[in-house]
């Protein structure tokens, strides 16, 4: 007779019965995988998926003698925005005696099954994802066995994860509106890849601001780049080959803004007579470039701190609102923007 299993309440015994092994073997395979053969571990993993047994709570109960550990998945370890977010995470983690492990997502995409197995077998307590480019597929059946997860710095509707973020659309709109109030009409947006959600939201803010001022959005004034200094510099070359070059540029981040400033000077433009530039992020170097960069300050440290507090609440089993918590940003006015001269 076929045994019917309630997947919502599957037990270790159900897993053992499904593959004809003992519960002790199931326990070792899930909490001490090095103590069983690869074949046995594979059988047990298949049985947990078949029965719907949630292994996270089993491994959670075996952690008392181990260091409490958080994994932070970052999109690019070279990104200047990551250190401040991680610093906020680390501050709260240290206060609560958690150790923080950091992984660069772009190096894990082809190893997602291995990464998920590490999360489960090595008893990671929680995961902070720093953007939507996560290192595993949401369709992976093992995801239900992962520890609690939160997203920091980017709202991703499809994830259904608790999120700490900023309102990218509103603050992009505000940046363009500030330039418009100074008298600028020919405003460019240098953005990143179209697939990145923050780029999509900031493009919406740019578009709405242009249209609300009664102007038509010109596609040649929207440049897709790659978040780098070189990307900002190359964009300037394209823009000043146009019949009607812009009088102001809004860059998706401070890095591209600095690259744009360098290239503008290199081709003989004079800031601020010929061009105004505004960035996003208020990274440490923004105030030291020449001219000092006007930018939208993103509260990166506080994003990290709030994300870690949210993750701790999830680990402790508290009810969490799945809606994104939005933090405030501020326009930092410096020397790279002024009214158009012509």
UniProtKB/TrEMBL annotation:
Name of the molecule in the record: HTH-type transcriptional repressor CytR
Q: Which Pfam families match?
A: LacI (PF00356), Peripla_BP_3 (PF13377)
Source species of the chain: Arsenophonus endosymbiont of Trialeurodes vaporariorum
InterPro entries, alphabetically? HTH_LacI (IPR000843), LacI/GalR-like_sensor (IPR046335), Lambda_DNA-bd_dom_sf (IPR010982), Peripla_BP_I (IPR028082)
Q: Per the record's keyword annotation, is Cell cycle included, yes or no?
A: no
Q: What is the lineage of its organism?
A: Bacteria, Pseudomonadati, Pseudomonadota, Gammaproteobacteria, Enterobacterales
Q: Tell me the leader sequence span.
A: none
Q: Name any one GO molecular function.
A: DNA-binding transcription factor activity
**UniProt keyword list:** DNA-binding, Repressor, Transcription, Transcription regulation
Q: Where is the HTH lacI-type domain?
A: 10-64
